[in-house]
Amino acid sequence: MRGQRWISRLPWGGVMLALLVGVTTRDCILVASAAMLAVYTARTQVDNREAVDLLRSAIQCWVVGGASIVIAIALVAMVAAMHAGLWDGNGLDTSSMLLTLGLSVLAVGVPAVADVTASHRRRTVARYVTVGTLIVWVAFVARSLDASGPCLFALGISAITSLWGWQLAHTVGRELARSTARA
């Protein structure tokens, strides 16, 4: 029981690692990656959590979806602050950034891999490996571009999180609420 609690908190530890190192070193790629990992973790927990009732599940979808959209807006504001000269977006060297990002991605993915024996988790693991690999690869490519690379990375993450949030809140949440009304 104690091990299950620890492993269920591990994804949020990975998110906090990327966020705290990103904010401390003023690295916008780590901050944007932390946002993406947070949305991924919250969405995975909503998808895998056993629903107590349909209305509660709809409310969870709306909350996570709304938070995803707020995160997307915050990332756009961060990019605007960088262009206004309030924030330097490349405060950490590439190897340290990739190491921190890799550790964060691993911390988020360990619970998904730990439960691989369940048949419905195989898709979760495959989705996680794809998302995690893409985040690290795109972060490396964005860092190797000119000064606008980190901004493009953050804006891309913003677009993805807003789409995920809209889909979760509008499509899934609405269908669950409709099912509640029919029941």
Main attributes of the structure:
183 residues; mainly alpha; 6 helices
Biggest sheet layout? none
The total tally of domains equals 1
- Beta-strand residue percentage: under 5%
Distance between the termini: 35 Å
* Quantity of strands, as a count: 0
- The rough form would be described as globular
Instruction: Please trace the helix and strand order, writing H or E for each element.
Output: HHHHHH
- What Rg, in angstroms, do the CA atoms define? 17 Å
Helix content: over 70%
Which segments are poorly predicted (pLDDT under 50) over 5 or more consecutive residues? Answer: none
Average the pLDDT over all residues and give the rounded result.
80
Q: Count helical runs.
A: 6
Helical/strand content category: mainly alpha
Task: Walk me through the structure.
With 183 residues, this protein is an all-alpha fold. It is 84% helix and 0% strand. It contains six helices and no strands.
Task: List strands and helices in order, with pairings.
Elements lengths: L1 H24 L2 H21 L5 H30 L10 H21 L6 H24 L4 H34 L1
Task: Describe, in short, the structure shown.
The chain is mostly helical. The protein has helices at residues 2-25, 28-48, 54-83, 94-114, 121-144, 149-182.
